[in-house]
């Protein structure tokens, strides 16, 4: 019987493995760490899962944090222009923020409980070739041990040649969370972005931040020093970031308590967004597919990285099932066809992420200003911006943005439900209308 080997137990590898198991396909997941090691390790990210990803989690029965009270239902966008303004909107389909030190180990355990084989071992290129002899198809869902190098960069789809942002992410203390819980996005022209969210951890819900600073700016200078070298000085710089660039967050801070929650509760660095070919030859007629960040690495500015990885994983799972049902070999033709399917699934995520790294066009600014004055437009925009396939056409031209505003001023059923105007519980799931 056919079997699939997956190297990497991040979200892409886990979602692929769980989906294949649900399709009745044997899977072995090769991980560098035991689930318990992930639990006590360093913060992995400050990811938010949006509606399509949450639907996929329900599809494979891993919606372990699906209680309505845990969801994120509101987002505020603060534009720090010469004439500052804010957009406050409700999500028609709530998002969810879970610490990946909780999320990934729980999914790995579910994978093993359902009959998946989990092996803890490092895998480099030489080991990958050996594993390929065990399995019908190998998939790489990690960039560790040089495996990313198997998959060539596609220049025409990868406009960045260096990191477009200096990044800092952390769980925080000394910050009173907003009531009701809500995400905050601060857009600072010429400096970057400061995000605030609240993440479900093993200690309960705690506040978090993600800072995206344009290299060479004052914001970048404030977050570039190594926190481990002087935690107190770094936390003082972080407080200054909030004071100057995120005033809606700063007003809820206790300066005497504020800082990074713990020594493993932060990340610093940067990376270059890249689209790679999703397959490589291992010789002797064997091929390997890439999935998730190994295939497409996006800057986190749009909050779409893990969501794109999940979409990519499910697309690959469907392609594998289709090939097995058709008794089609996992040859180069399969790889090329599946690469095209996977890129179609994640291209909107990449285009939206790259767009947000650039200064917004005037018609998008006009749309934000309108949303700051019109609740219906705000709710529609806040909801749709979480789904790249929905928001990209809106931002394509001044005419498209104007048409969107005209349509949004007639509220959709899902927006009315989210606001409670229909008298229904806000947790009620309504299929959104196209738009």
Automatic annotation (TrEMBL):
GO terms (molecular function) for this protein are:
monooxygenase activity
Entry keyword set: Monooxygenase, Oxidoreductase
Tell me where in this chain the Styrene monooxygenase StyA putative substrate binding domain is found.
143-252
Q: Does the keyword Oxidoreductase apply?
A: yes
Q: Which Pfam families match?
A: Smoa_sbd (PF17885)
Check the record and name the InterPro entries matching this protein: FAD/NAD-bd_sf, StyA_sbd
Residue ranges that the Swiss-Prot or TrEMBL entry lists as coiled coil: none
The molecule here is called Monooxygenase
């Amino acid at each position: 019987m056919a079997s699939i080997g997956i190297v990497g137990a991040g979200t892409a590898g886990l979602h692929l493995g769980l989906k294949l198991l649900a399709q009745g396909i044997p899977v072995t997941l090769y991980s560098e760490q035991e689930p318990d090691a992930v639990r006590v390790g360093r913060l992995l990210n400050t990811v938010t899962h949006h509606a399509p990803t949450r639907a996929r989690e329900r599809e494979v029965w891993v919606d372990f944090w699906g209680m309505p009270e845990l969801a994120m239902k509101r987002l505020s966008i603060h534009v720090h222009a010469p004439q500052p303004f804010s957009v406050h909107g409700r999500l028609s389909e709530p998002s969810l923020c879970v610490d990946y030190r909780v999320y990934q180990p729980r999914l790995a355990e579910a994978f093993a409980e359902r009959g998946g084989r989990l092996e803890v071992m490092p895998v480099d290129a030489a080991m990958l070739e050996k594993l390929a002899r065990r399995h019908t198809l190998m998939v790489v869902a990690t960039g560790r041990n040089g495996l990313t190098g198997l998959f060539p960069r596609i220049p025409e789809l990868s406009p960045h040649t260096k990191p477009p942002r200096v990044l800092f992410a952390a769980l925080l203390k000394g910050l009173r969370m907003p009531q009701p819980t809500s995400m905050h996005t601060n857009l600072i022209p010429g400096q970057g972005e400061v995000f605030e969210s609240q993440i479900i951890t093993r200690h309960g819900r705690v506040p978090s931040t993600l800072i995206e600073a344009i290299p060479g700016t004052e914001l970048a200078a404030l977050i570039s020093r190594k926190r481990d070298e002087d935690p107190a000085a770094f936390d003082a710089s972080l407080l200054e970031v909030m004071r100057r660039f995120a005033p809606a967050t700063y007003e809820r801070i206790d300066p005497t308590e504020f800082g990074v929650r713990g020594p493993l509760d932060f990340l610093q660095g940067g990376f270059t967004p890249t689209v790679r070919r999703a397959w490589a030859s291992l010789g002797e007629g064997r091929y390997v597919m890439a999935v998730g960040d190994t295939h497409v690495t996006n800057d986190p500015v749009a909050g779409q990285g893990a969501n794109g990885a999940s979409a990519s994983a499910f697309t690959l799972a469907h392609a594998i099932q289709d090939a097995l049902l058709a008794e089609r070999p996992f040859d180069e033709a399969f790889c090329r066809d599946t690469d095209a399917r996977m890129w179609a699934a994640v291209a909107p995520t990449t285009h939206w992420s790259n767009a947000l790294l650039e200064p917004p066009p005037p018609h998008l600014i006009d749309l934000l200003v309108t949303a700051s004055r019109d609740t219906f437009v705000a709710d529609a925009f806040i909801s749709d911006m979480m789904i790249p396939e929905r928001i990209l056409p809106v931002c394509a031209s001044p005419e498209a943005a104007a048409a969107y505003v005209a349509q949004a001023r007639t509220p959709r059923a899902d927006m009315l439900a989210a606001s409670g105007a229909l008298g229904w519980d806000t947790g009620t799931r309504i299929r959104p209308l196209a738009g």
